[in-house]
Design goal:
The protein is of the alpha+beta class. Helix content is 44%, strand content 17%. The chain has helices spanning 2-15, 70-77, 89-96, 121-133, 139-158, 161-173, 188-192, 196-206, 222-232, 285-299, 305-313, 346-363, 369-384, 388-400, 405-409, 411-417, 420-432, and strands at 29-32, 38-43, 49-56, 100-105, 110-117, 212-218, 258-263, 270-277, 317-324, 332-340, 436-443. Strand 1 and strand 2 form a beta hairpin. The longest helix is centred in the N-terminal third of the chain and has 20 residues, at 139-158. It is globular, with a radius of gyration of 23 Å. 41% of the residues are buried.
């Protein structure tokens, strides 16, 4: 009964949105300041709280050659202070007012965010806009944070077999010198040599209003956000950011596309297959949306085909699924993964995954299967509206990767237009793509 109610909710909500020619997802209000900074407002009046985010179109993929890790190191250094707010005053003041903060770096962007009472929004804007261009770096602070990040790399990469395998595999999956082939945290030897001058050079090249997106979500009104944004961000007058270079991948087939890592710390084997596929950056929107549907039908949870076949019916796996990165600034990846039950080898698991791909290709969809799947995906988008952070994260990530608000807001319409043949064509493209690799993570001493 609950499932039926969710289905009806999904259909009815998207059918009755007022004054819309078609269904949308988050319905943001947006404008651009005179200095080029994009502002996105997502009112949500369920609680007197506001989420303030600044996204920079600068991630590890934008780092100069030989300076891997500088984007993430700069993220750490941004908390050191400015002339006006030195020595961690930003964080202390935010904490005194009951706020929370964090930051993140990816291949495609870096983001900073604060959650605070709605009547403290002006305070946060004053603090964040100050460090956009007025960061002060002491050489001793740079050395300290560099050591912190090196230790972070020890914990997250060196001491994590899964992360080490992923790092090795990415070097095979992407062409030589492609920025997606290096870790966001950086190569150890390059990270250890980063300097204050490197951090300031990356900061000045990339941290500017025309390279940033301000997203404010929560208990706010558009007019008030616009007034504050113009007061604090609109007055910033610095040189434009360095234009981003294109991320063009090779179309050559990958040879030796299997990476195996055996480690005594591994207690559970894992198999995966990563396949290059188009993203919104370089792909036909129909194909991209069909790939999203394909990921959902094959690997989207415990009701998906792979889970039912490998975990429930054949009892070969403990878990299985898929992942597709449609929002990447470069090309996307379509990933299959599974962990075997005791006594099941990884090749048997890989063959079972392949059999499920072929079964969908040969037998097609069951009656009503695609429509039920679309309804479930739309339901997820509806419930995401209730969470203050969901829209901010989705829009921020897409805008910072070079996509548009329309790419996000038109998604329900694109989803509804996907046909069974579109999905099967997407599956054929996944199967035939020569740029793919397989990884095997295994306990030390295990038979390959």
């Amino acid at each position: 009964m609950k499932r039926a109610l969710l289905t009806l909710a999904a259909i009815s909500l998207f059918a009755v949105l007022p004054n819309r020619s078609h269904a949308e997802v988050f319905n943001p209000e947006t404008y651009t300041l005179k200095n080029g900074m994009q502002v996105v407002v997502l009112p949500n009046h369920r609680a007197p709280v506001v989420l303030h985010m600044v996204w920079y179109r600068a991630g590890s993929a934008d780092e100069p050659v030989g300076k891997s890790g500088i984007a993430h190191l700069l993220e750490h250094l941004m908390f050191k202070g400015t002339t006006k707010n030195p020595d961690g005053i930003f964080s202390r003041k935010l904490a005194q007012h009951g706020g929370q903060e964090n930051a993140f770096t990816s291949h495609d962007y870096t983001g900073y965010h604060q959650t605070v009472a709605a009547d403290r929004l002006e305070m946060v804007m004053a603090l964040e806009s100050d460090r956009m261009t007025n960061l002060v770096l002491d050489p001793a602070d740079v050395k300290t944070e560099r050591d912190v990040v090196l230790e972070e790399r020890n914990q997250r990469i060196e001491n994590n077999p899964s992360a080490r395998l992923r790092e090795q595999a990415n070097q095979t999956l992407y062409p030589k010198d492609h920025p997606y082939g290096r870790p966001v945290i950086g190569w150890r030897n390059e990270l250890a040599s980063l300097t204050r001058e490197d951090a300031l050079a990356f900061y000045k090249a990339n941290y500017a209003p025309d390279n940033a997106i301000l997203i404010v979500a929560g208990d706010v009104q558009l007019g008030e956000v616009k007034r504050l944004a113009e007061k604090y961000y609109g007055v910033i007058d610095v040189a434009p950011a360095t234009p981003r270079r294109n991320l063009v991948a090779s179309t050559a087939a990958i040879t030796g596309g299997e990476t195996v890592l055996k480690d005594a710390r591994v207690s559970q084997s894992v198999w995966s297959q990563s396949i290059i596929q188009p993203s919104l950056t370089n792909g036909d929107p129909v194909r991209v949306t069909a790939l999203e549907v394909l990921s959902e039908i094959l690997g989207g949870g415990s009701t998906a085909r792979l889970y039912r076949a490998l975990v429930i019916d054949q009892k070969l796996a403990l878990n299985s699924g898929t992942y597709y990165d449609s929002g990447a600034r470069g090309e996307g990846r379509f990933v299959f993964y599974a962990s075997p039950r005791p006594g099941v080898d990884l090749d048997t698991l890989a063959n079972a995954v392949e059999a499920e791909k072929q079964r969908l290709l040969t037998d097609g969809f069951k009656d009503g299967e695609l429509n039920r799947l679309k309804t479930r995906m739309l339901s997820g988008a509806i419930f995401a509206r209730d969470e203050m952070k969901a829209g901010a994260m989705t829009l921020g990530a897409n805008l910072a990767a070079g996509h548009s608000i329309a790419d996000v807001e038109d998604w329900p319409e694109r989803l509804q237009a996907v046909t069974e043949q579109d999905v099967l064509d997407a599956l054929k493209a996944v199967i035939s793509e020569p740029r793919q690799i397989t990884t095997k993570l295994m306990p030390k001493g295990a038979a390959q």
